[in-house]
Amino acid sequence: TEVVRHIYVSAQGLANVVEDFLNVTKIEQGGMKYVFASTDMRTIVDDLASDMRITAEAKHLEFQTDINEGVFMVNADGTKMKQVFLNLIDNSIKYTKEGFVKVWLHKTQDEHGKDMMKFGVSDSGVGVSEETKAKLFQKFGRGEGAVMNGGGSGLGLYLAQEIVKAHGGEIIIDSEGLGKGATFSVALPLIGN
């Protein structure tokens, strides 16, 4: 029934908030454990895109993917990187009322000619102001869209950034301002550089 579903969703949300707090404590105490191994990021992104398409389409959003063919091997903790990608896709869906969410994965090179993978999520959502960009990665940092979406711990992007840093990468935000959508991307070095 609808009541049971509502209770489940609320309980799941609370469990996620508690998990976020525990992970922040681990990071701050230097206790976040990573299990690095050769991991094909394309498999992770493909699986997440399939799962999240349902959530996006339930909100009547156009869900697009642009995932390059081939293998994207990265020395990574696959479980933690999946958590990062999931967080970015989920945020994009949450903060987009209408239009599209696009998940993409490309091969590129950094300024030194190293082969990189670049994962991103672009949307037609609320956008991000310049003042908010820096705040989003702070603990409990919330963007303007927080009014639209009161749930969550305000820790997701902080945790995502810390995990990505531990993998030698960073999360970049591109947005032309409020109401103009946003792109969140992550670049990581491919194995073999």
Write the topology of this structure.
Blueprint: H1 2-28, E1 37-40, H2 41-58, E2 62-67, E3 73-76, H3 78-94, E4 100-109, E5 115-123, H4 130-135, H5 156-166, E6 170-174, E7 182-189
Parallel strand pairs: 2-4
Antiparallel strand pairs: 1-3, 4-5, 5-7, 6-7
Helix pairs in contact: 1-5, 2-3, 3-5
Task: Characterize this entry briefly.
The protein is built from five helices and seven strands. The protein has 193 residues and is an alpha+beta fold. The strands form two sheets. A five-stranded mixed beta sheet has the order 2-4-5-7-6.
What does this structure look like?
The protein has 193 residues and is of the alpha+beta class. 41% of the residues lie in helices and 24% in strands. It is globular.
Helix content: 40-55%
Individual helix count: 5
Mean of pLDDT: 81
Number of strands: 7
Radius of gyration: 17 Å
Q: Please, what is the oligomeric state? A: single chain
The end-to-end distance, rounded to whole angstroms, is 53 Å
The fraction of residues in strands falls at: 15-25%
* Low-confidence regions: 13-18, 20-27, 146-153
